[in-house]
């Protein structure tokens, strides 16, 4: 039953086939990646991050060539530079995601860059995408706390969002890369970002490192975000930092939202079965909890 004061629906963006699998120790071959996307579609997901064009491997092209094309389905990909953008466009990607680190320390450790350099790269890629390429989306990494520099103020993240908004993003994603955020922080950060980037849809990406991911997701939803990221099985995190939790699990998020009377269009049982299937291929039990109750 729909509860008073609760939004009627939310879009869930599946990031497991890309962001999730790229941080797993066990490599998953292209056919299994394609099957994962097909299972996600069967469970009702319609916006799926399927690839990362961040290396010379041609696997993203092989995966995208094998994916079904359906009305209402959008495929997303991570890109790091102009070459990646060109490859993504040629492969038929609908949206490209460009990451901007909120702190210089994280940008330097991950890519040998700085926040300023990330912003310049975003502006260049967004301009190119606006000239007939895929829709450009910007993700602000470590927006809720940084493993290198510690706390990150809402004011600083809002200023980064303002500079991102200058280049016309289709969406801004606030990512809790370290899983450090709490619900009150979610409220404050959304408030400040909306002030500095009015009219730009906001999506949130939460990790469950400290068991706050689902509380943060529910808070962001109640605060009216356009969409939430999730990963089937709750896979992801960081292969080089084993203590970092994965992205919140799609099946667990679907269960939570459905219980709140929210329309997601997702089949939680089908998602849970897919999480179990994925764990078998990764040779480990996935973090998601719903599949353990079935």
UniProtKB/TrEMBL annotation:
Segments forming domain Pyruvate carboxyltransferase: 10-272
Pfam families recorded: HMGL-like
Keywords attached to this entry: Lyase, Metal-binding
GO molecular function annotation: lyase activity
The UniProt record lists the keyword Metal-binding: yes
InterPro entries: Aldolase_TIM (IPR013785), HMGL (IPR043594), PYR_CT (IPR000891)
SUPFAM superfamilies, per database record: Aldolase
Record has Lipoprotein as a keyword: no
Family: Belongs to the HMG-CoA lyase family.
Protein name: Hydroxymethylglutaryl-CoA lyase
Species of origin: Saccharopolyspora gregorii
